[in-house]
Amino acid sequence: MNNDELITKLKTIIAPYIQDEEAFKNLSEDTDFVKDLKINSANLVDIILDIEDEFDIRLENDDMEKMLDVKSAMAIVTSKLNK
User: Fold this and answer.
1) pTM
2) d(CA 25, CA 31)
3) Among 43, 50, 44, which residue's Cα sits nearest to residue 68?
4) For 64-82, what is the mean pLDDT?
5) The dihedral sign for the CA sequence 27, 33, 37, 39
6) Can you tell me the distance from the alpha carbon of 56 to that of 4, in angstroms, rounded to the nearest whole number?
């Protein structure tokens, strides 16, 4: 899966939880879930669970703590898929 496909899947997962529509339209690898999209911590947990389901992977607490922006999410998902 290339980066564009991964970002497209992540956008689909993140969409129901965003609070800042404009930031979502401009989503890039540098987009921060909390600062830019205004996603609260409870919804961040939902996103992580949705990512696990979508990609059929298991994320450890360590992974979850690092998954604060799109770039981190992509790196973690890619590393899990490559195992």
Assistant:
1) 0.90
2) 11
3) 44
4) 95
5) positive
6) 19
